[in-house]
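Human: My hope is that you can spare some time for a protein that puzzles me. I am handing you a single protein, as its sequence and its fold in token form. Could you go through the record with me and say what the backbone is doing? Take your time, and here it is.
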Amino acid sequence: MRALKIFLATASALLLGVTMAPSAHAAGGKYVALGDSYTVGVGTKTYDNPDDACRRGPLSYSRLWAAQHPDYNFVEASCSGDSTVEMLANQVPQLTPDTSLVTVQVGGNDVGFVDVLTNCVLTIDDADCLAGVEASKAAMAGYLPGQLQQVYSAIRAGAPSAKVVAVGYPRLYAIGGNCGIFGLSDTERAALNSAADTISDVISAAAAQAGFTYLDPRPAFDAHSICSDGNDWVTSLEWSKINESYHPNTEGHRDGYLALLNGITG
């Protein structure tokens, strides 16, 4: 009789464990978004508070992912303009051991890519544009890997069991597309695209070394780049809104980044 009671108690415990498992999974987890202006949705031109320096908005891919996964506790640490230094100081400390998903998009501000873009638009000399691009690429290859290693190591220390997705940057321009009479030359466009390829190589290599998943947006965005014949996913130059130029727009976040992130996370 005593043996039967022990058996029944053990069986009940096992059944309880089986029935509890789905509930634990349904509870979701904690998602922390780390990033720069590409992450917060500057190109969507929709903000929580236009006067907030971080310029966060509801149409960013991280917000959209969180809205689709309400069982996750969402922490938006991303801030427009942040480099790896600011990310280490202000964003990474918001990670906690119970974090289960992290997206991290950073690097463009470390190598002055916005300034390079602006210079290429303002100058009429291809050579000046190309020189700026090459200087930026040199910084990507020489300076950025060490910075990313610091960030990625800090992320793993702050969120030891999280799935981490390192998010890359798209190419901006279609080569041979129609940019209008005041558009950049194909030479300048190709140079800027080569910079996007360089930073993608650096980020993907650092992500692989850290054991993170790399999200490469280039194949999806290429058909929707500036001057392409398709629906653009990236904002072009707007003189009255320079800070919003050259960023993923609403479609870029929703149909580009969000779709790619869902492909990784489910």
